[in-house]
Amino acid sequence: MYQEFYNLNGKPFQLTPDAGMLFPSKSHKRAMAYLLYGLEQGEGFVMITGAVGTGKTLLIQKLLEEIAHRNVAMASIASANLGGEDILPAVASAFDLPYESRSKEALLQQLKQHLIELRESHAHALLVVDEAQTLAPAALEMLRILSNLEVKGRALLQVFLIGQSELRNLIINNRMEQLRQRVIVSHRMQPLGEGESLAYIMHRLRAVGWNHDPELSSGIFVSVYRASCGIPRRINLIMDRLLLHGYLEELHTLDVSALTTVLNEIREEMSDMPLTLEDPAFADHPGHENRNMPAEKASQSEKVESDVSNILLRLMRETIRIRKVMSLRKSEASFADDRMTGDDSLLSSGKTKDGLE
Mean pLDDT score of the chain, rounded to an integer? Predict the structure, then answer.
């Protein structure tokens, strides 16, 4: 529709992850570096967490491109509340092994034999678990057991855990010390900053041949950043709707007025979107990586906002702001007591990047 109207050779803001459109933000660069570092170690767990829409799936797609030339036998599962009895069949299936009517012991032996065969062929066995925050503690413990399988002192399987921020809490709250000691590196994806949000939009537009049609007013960028809280998927949603609006109204210049119309429409249709042009509370800035991600706080406040009427919006904004401050302070105090939330330095001497020992 609008692609032809604006002479674009594709959709710049599609919601489906496309590794070819990956914007190399600071957080993504660091995450990729940690993934590659972890892969070089060939053992244990690598953990990548982040709010919904921060680009975790896209990052994994890009990783697969980076390691396509390597002899890596990769299997992946998308966790959907898998329990302790479900995880082994899921792993076996991911490695194209039969699993029906097999006991846990039989599956373990089968998996170990398969991993030994991969090792003998000099292949690196890698299991990627997406949406890992939905795993039951028993399932995580079984993955730890699998990661302990070794021959002649060399691990047979490495596991990448990819999930939302609750994954960290799941490990901490269930006192999974043995698993934590197996995490060799971890990284928490951060939303884009204001400057990165602008660069992200321009990167996507230029990737599809944008030639300043439509022209975007300078106020568009900061307004999209504020409305999206720097979450790439939300930026895509907003910008896609903005371009559609421009096409329907036959506009070749898009300004904040057009964006406000679009955001109001989205807010009416999707109650979980942030308020129009409202500043994200405690937005992350470069160099402040230990602060809680605005996406987590936004998701909490958005659920509250969806239950109130427009007449109470002003009051609710202030209430939500106070709740965010209280939650942030409580979270910072909790994480300060646990090395899980240390800074994102690489591990040495058996310590994890985020202090997971």
Answer: 79
